[in-house]
Amino acid sequence: MTTTTAISVSGLGKSFGATRALDGLDLEVASGEVHGFLGPNGSGKSTTIRVLLGLLRPDEGRTELLGGDPWRDAVALHRRLAYVPGDVTLWPTISGGETIDLIGALRGGLDPRRRAELLERFDLDPRKKARTYSKGNRQKVALVAALASDAELFILDEPTSGLDPLMEAVFQECIRELRADGRTVLLSSHILAEAEALCDRVSIIRLGRTVQSGTLAELRHLTRMSMVVETERPADALADLPGVHDLRHDDGRVRFDVDTDALDDVLRHLAGLGVRGLTSTPPTLEELFLRHYGDELAADGVPAGQGAGRS
Amino acid sequence: MSTGSSTLAGTGALFRFALRRDRLRLPVWIAAGTFMVVTQSISSQALYETSADLAAYRASVGSNAATIALAGPPVGLDTVAGAVAFEISATVMLIAALMAMFTVARHTRADEEAGRTELLRSARVGRHAPLLAAVLLAALACGALALAIGAATTATGLPAPGSFALGAAVGACGLVFTGITAVAVQATGHTRGVYGLVGGLFAVAFVLRAIGDIEGNWVVWTSPIGWAQATHPFTDDAVVPLLLCLAVAAALVVAGFALLDRRDLGSGLLQPRPGRPAARRTLLSPLGLAVRLHRGALIAWTVGLGLLGVVYGALAESVETLIGENEEALALFGDPDVDQLVDAYLGTTFAVTALLASAYAVSAVLRARGEESEDRAEVLLATATSRSAWLGSHVLVALLGSALAMAVAGVTTGLVRAAQTGEAAALGRMVGAAVSYVPAVWVVAGVAVALFGLLPRVAAAAAWSAVGLFLLITLFAESFDWPGWVSDLSPISWVPTLPLEEWTLAPLAGLVVAAAVLLAAGLTGFRQRDIALG
């Protein structure tokens, strides 16, 4: 790799009429990493990707992709990247196999062995006309076309939204192979389990702005561990410790969340109570996510405590 | 209306629902069909005021194969009413057949394809109910069209029995195509396939009756359109052909139900042909894809304009006899050379052909807009395909395709004309006249490209409005004596009306330059703008 940064975006802004789709978005993707690009529908993920692909012209900000300008150098850069759109629409009378070959050829060539292998793994019949494919199968066509190419950078916009769990597993395997091979992947998703399973680093965006960016470990540090303990003596005093939240009794056990930096104090306190059982769950990306979007959920009438978005 | 276990359960509810969904659509079809008969009746009554007019009409039309091929059996031409039925019945029968086809397919295969039938069938709706409801709705529409034509034509002053016989013949033709569609929706799994199948059968039926009518033989009885026209409204008012239509329609509907039992929901009896597992080399470029996407429409337009060229060429002989043997008409035109009159007529027909070729070119350019708004452009523009190459491939097909269609129309007219006159030179003259319009057609295409590049969201509406304006100018500017600057708005009117006028380079060169400027503006605009999201 000649560049160490595959994608570098700062202060990106884009408006459509009165709608501000991107509002000073930042994004850094290092070469060779799988980067999760997380946010709910309408938060600006697809708009960012379209700017990165040179399909949209940014209003403001700096955008660099593989060392070039995505708008000015679009054609040259596209030889080095592969793209899977979120909602794949194909030509109804052209077969899946033809579509894969067409997209591959226009990008600069496909590896026929890899193409055959991927068709097998994704269990896709290339002879069917696109009109007869389900959403999942259309997505597989775009995935095979992208994965069979020799690109440096893969930009995948919610690529698994139509896939069943079996195919999702195949997809995850393919992404791990890409990473082992030193390729860079930008994976936009709102499926958090997928991002947790695959991504080295994630960026969480909301209303066209990046709200959090870092490795999963770094981000977890910002949030809370969930614990369930069973003690000989009552653990009520835990509630008064700093960093302990949402303490509740549950069938002789105590459940609570604890800030990562208060963990040490809480464990010392517990040791004096005679611990009989203890389970701890690291914070999931989902909790992290809900913390950033918790106020939106509350505004939509989802009661607090239903998700992990406690405040 | 039916018991829960019946395969017809829920037909009543579905019928009322279908009626509600089509409460605007069907009245428009019926009004359109009725309006055509009424206009024909009024204009024919005005045109053939005297029996001498009618005799002249009968003499020219009754022996002209081209007119008979397009209209129907030359029966009853000694009355104005008979002439009305002769001229309009084929067109209205096409309307009835299309109305029946769209109605049945919309409420059966289209719903099934979209998954709506599955939802309905999960409720208490029997297997046969959707088809029966659709057939009943189409039959109701055909009946209403028949009555509307009968009543409205009587109101224009034609005899009531014949008027209602004409209506009944049109309705009967619609019923046969209701039956044909009821079978076709079982055969193919896709609504577009149904339209192709039924449209193709209509074309075959039309050709068979044309052959039968020209030859005056039994072949006409192989065609349902032939049966319906055999009613001979205002002459025989025959009932037997109508009964034949009804019997065949009923048999086809029964066959449709039987076939429905032999297939699964969502599938057709004909398995879709599998495509290629891998692409041929010819597909693997932006132009290769564009050719593939445009191929069907280009062939259809070229064949259509070629056939139109045959018809126009064939009618040239009628123009010759009609005007050449009519002292009054000759006097009216200032005693011109009859050959010149024919040339003037052919020049006008090429202007109309050029408008149709422009319509093709605009539709081909707007295909790029469709690809963009349906998100298929995005996948390609994310590859190493430049915007110029992508748009250029669609534009190239539009330009060369419209030129090809014009040339083919010139060749077919020229061949027919050469056969009529025995002069081989006619071919070259006709091709030259037709091809002279190509720069004007390209200007219209250029307007569409410029709109696509600069104002993508309004491109379709604006480009079609331009075509509509040019159509009005070509049809009416001369007859209504519109000011010159209005005519000059249309590129079609810049072209010298060959073969009558002299060929001159200046206007054609100007048109080519205008087209190039418009294309460049569109391409530049497209390279600067966002790819629209819909």
UniProtKB/TrEMBL annotation, chain A:
<protein>
    <submittedName>
        <fullName>ABC-2 type transport system ATP-binding protein</fullName>
    </submittedName>
</protein>
<keyword id="KW-0813">Transport</keyword>
<dbReference type="GO" id="GO:0005524">
    <property type="term" value="F:ATP binding"/>
</dbReference>
<dbReference type="Pfam" id="PF13732">
    <property type="entry name" value="DrrA1-3_C"/>
</dbReference>
<dbReference type="GO" id="GO:0046677">
    <property type="term" value="P:response to antibiotic"/>
</dbReference>
<dbReference type="InterPro" id="IPR025302">
    <property type="entry name" value="DrrA1/2-like_C"/>
</dbReference>
<keyword id="KW-0046">Antibiotic resistance</keyword>
<dbReference type="Pfam" id="PF00005">
    <property type="entry name" value="ABC_tran"/>
</dbReference>
<dbReference type="InterPro" id="IPR017871">
    <property type="entry name" value="ABC_transporter-like_CS"/>
</dbReference>
<dbReference type="InterPro" id="IPR003439">
    <property type="entry name" value="ABC_transporter-like_ATP-bd"/>
</dbReference>
<dbReference type="InterPro" id="IPR050763">
    <property type="entry name" value="ABC_transporter_ATP-binding"/>
</dbReference>
<keyword id="KW-0547">Nucleotide-binding</keyword>
<dbReference type="InterPro" id="IPR027417">
    <property type="entry name" value="P-loop_NTPase"/>
</dbReference>
<comment type="similarity">
    <text>Belongs to the ABC transporter superfamily.</text>
</comment>
<dbReference type="GO" id="GO:0005886">
    <property type="term" value="C:plasma membrane"/>
</dbReference>
<keyword id="KW-0067">ATP-binding</keyword>
<feature type="domain" description="ABC transporter">
    <location>
        <begin position="7"/>
        <end position="232"/>
    </location>
</feature>
<dbReference type="GO" id="GO:0016887">
    <property type="term" value="F:ATP hydrolysis activity"/>
</dbReference>
<dbReference type="InterPro" id="IPR003593">
    <property type="entry name" value="AAA+_ATPase"/>
</dbReference>
From TrEMBL, chain B:
<feature type="transmembrane region" description="Helical">
    <location>
        <begin position="194"/>
        <end position="212"/>
    </location>
</feature>
<keyword id="KW-1133">Transmembrane helix</keyword>
<feature type="transmembrane region" description="Helical">
    <location>
        <begin position="296"/>
        <end position="315"/>
    </location>
</feature>
<feature type="transmembrane region" description="Helical">
    <location>
        <begin position="462"/>
        <end position="485"/>
    </location>
</feature>
<keyword id="KW-0472">Membrane</keyword>
<keyword id="KW-0812">Transmembrane</keyword>
<feature type="transmembrane region" description="Helical">
    <location>
        <begin position="26"/>
        <end position="48"/>
    </location>
</feature>
<feature type="transmembrane region" description="Helical">
    <location>
        <begin position="505"/>
        <end position="526"/>
    </location>
</feature>
<protein>
    <submittedName>
        <fullName>ABC-2 type transport system permease protein</fullName>
    </submittedName>
</protein>
<feature type="transmembrane region" description="Helical">
    <location>
        <begin position="164"/>
        <end position="187"/>
    </location>
</feature>
<feature type="transmembrane region" description="Helical">
    <location>
        <begin position="344"/>
        <end position="366"/>
    </location>
</feature>
<feature type="transmembrane region" description="Helical">
    <location>
        <begin position="80"/>
        <end position="102"/>
    </location>
</feature>
<feature type="transmembrane region" description="Helical">
    <location>
        <begin position="395"/>
        <end position="416"/>
    </location>
</feature>
<feature type="transmembrane region" description="Helical">
    <location>
        <begin position="436"/>
        <end position="455"/>
    </location>
</feature>
<feature type="transmembrane region" description="Helical">
    <location>
        <begin position="238"/>
        <end position="260"/>
    </location>
</feature>
<feature type="transmembrane region" description="Helical">
    <location>
        <begin position="131"/>
        <end position="152"/>
    </location>
</feature>
